[in-house]
Amino acid sequence: MSNIPAFGLGTFRLQGQVVIDSVRNGLELGYRTIDTAQIYGNEAEVGEAIAASGVARKDLFLTTKIWVDNYSREKLVPSLKDSLRKLRTDEVDLTLIHWPAPNNGVSLEEFMSALAEAKSQGLTKQIGVSNFNIELTKQAIAVVGKENIATNQIELSPYLQGRKLVGFLQQEGIHVTSYMTLAYGKVLGDPVIRAIAERRHATPAQVALAWALRLGYSVIPSSTKRENLASNLLAQTLQLSGEDMAEIAALERNGREVSPEGLAAQWD
Question: Which residues contact 105 (CB under 8 A, 6 or more apart)?
C-alpha cells in the first residue's frame, strides 16, 4: 500500500526565483509535499528553498521524476544521485518514470528494473510511474510487482476523468495522483463548477481539487501567488455532496492538455 500524501505543491513550469518563492511560501503556509522533476530544471532551486525554510527533512515528502534521456541502466541511478545532490538530500520519498516514451530505445523492463535498483540502493523510499496507460502499467507490474508501484501520476481534471484507467489502477491497488487538476485553469470558468463554488462558499479551484480528493486521488496544484497557495489548501476541508459530484462527473469531455509526441503512449 503506498503512502503518498493527499495534498502537495507542484512546481511544473516554475523556474528560478519564481519557484524558490513558491516553495518558500508553500512551506510557510503548511505544505509538506513537493513535486518536481529532472526536466523541470528547478531541482536545485527547490532544494535551496527547502534548505532555507528550516523545515526538517523528515517532515517533508519529496517527489522527483526521471527524464527520458536517463532511462538506461547506466544512466538512471547516476541521474537520480544528481537530482539528490541538487535537492540537498540523501534520498527522495518517491521517484517516478516521467513518461513511457515507448520508442526512445530503452525497454520498459530495463528502466523499471533500474528504478527498482535505485530503491534498493536507498536513493528513494518509493517508486512509481507517470503517464502510463493500462497496458504499460501491466508491463511495469510484471517487472517490479504492483506492491512496488506507489502511484501512477496522470493528468486528471473535471474535463478529463480517465475512468477506465483510474478503475484499473484502483482495482490493482495502485494509488492515483492527479496533475493538471484545474486543466490549466480552464475549469475555473466552468459554469457548473462556479455554481457549486457559490453554493459551497468556495472558489472554483477548491471545488475542482475537492472533487479529486473525494475520489481518493492525491493532488499537486501549483501557484505563484501566496493567496492562491493558501486558498488551495482549504480544498481539503471542503465537503462536496453526491449531487455536486454527479454534476462534475457530467463535465467529462476527454479534455486532455498534455500529450507530447513520442513521449505518450496510446491513451485508454
Answer: none
With CA atoms as reference, report the closest residue to 80 among 122, 131, 23: 122
Residue with cell 513511457: 100
Strand, coil or helix: 32: coil
Strand runs labelled E in 8-77: 9-10, 33-35, 61-66
Whole-angstrom Cα distance, residue 89 to residue 93? 10
**Fold of the domain built from segment(s) 9-186+217-225:** TIM Barrel (3.20.20)
State the average pLDDT over residues 94-113: 96
pLDDT digits (tens, 9 = 90+) for 162-201: 999 999 999 999 999 999 999 999 999 999 999 999 999 9
DSSP per-residue string spanning 111-176: HHHHHHHHHHTTSEEEEEEES--HHHHHHHHHHH-GGG--EEEEE-BTTB--HHHHHHHHHHT-EE
Angle among Cα 226, 58, 35 to the nearest 5 degrees reads: 45
Q: Are residues 145 and 119 in contact, defined by beta-carbon separation less than 8 angstroms?
A: no
C-alpha 120/C-alpha 241 separation (Å) is 43
For residue 28, the tally of other CB atoms under 10 A from its CB is 13
CA distance 34 to 220: 8
98 is known to lie in a ligand binding site:
yes
Exactly one of 40, 159, 179, 217 is catalytic; which is it? Answer: 40
Among this protein's residues, is 217 annotated catalytic? no
**pTM of the complete model:** 0.97
Span 1-58, pLDDT tens digits: 568 999 999 999 999 999 999 999 999 999 999 999 999 999 999 999 999 999 999 9
Percentage above 70 pLDDT, the chain: 99
Radius of gyration from C-alpha coordinates of the chain: 18
